Amino acid sequence: MKSFSKKTFSESVFKIGTDLIELDRFNNFDFNGRLAANIFTMRELRDCGKKQNKAASLAARFAAKEAVQKCLNKNLRYNLIEIVNEKKGQPKVNLLDPLMKNRYKIQVSLSHNKTMAQAFCLAINLDSRGLNTK
Fold it and tell me: How confident is the model at residue 4 (pLDDT cuts 50, 70, 90)?
């Protein structure tokens, strides 16, 4: 079986990440506090503030940010990873860091129940193997 070096893994075309988090961590969340600004963008806070289950929406987005970080193997600030919904409701990742913006094509899936939220992330490294045309 072929072993992979660190360099081979970090340059691989496909990457995955996942995270699971308890909703309780986001009960009574202060939308105007410093923690909110460090984790979420204004758009995310506005969108989650409109949801019936705010804690589930916040937790799912936080899990998605963690999954993206794990997937990309980068320590990006949480508020530079934006999770929004497209018109039909599917989640979309916006990388707000100018150096990362066009490097990856990212898909996420979010889910939650009464106590937990989870996210899965798949990223395609567009710089790898000459896939980036920008």
Answer: very low
C-alpha distance from residue 29 to each of 45, 48, 50, 99 (Å): 11, 11, 14, 31
Going by C-beta distance under 8 Å and a sequence separation of 6 or more, which residues neighbour residue 49? 31
Does pLDDT of 111 surpass 50?
A: yes
**CA 94, CA 82: separation in Å to the nearest integer?**
5
The confidence band for 127, taking pLDDT boundaries of 50, 70 and 90, is confident
SS3 83: strand
- Separation in Å, CA 93 to CA 6, 65, 72, 102: 26, 9, 13, 12
Beta bridge partners of 121: 17, 108
In this structure, what token pair is assigned to residue 86? 């497209």
Determine the pLDDT at residue 131: 52
CATH architecture for segment(s) 6-130: Alpha-Beta Complex (3.90)
Q: Which pair of tokens denotes residue 54? A: 């705010």
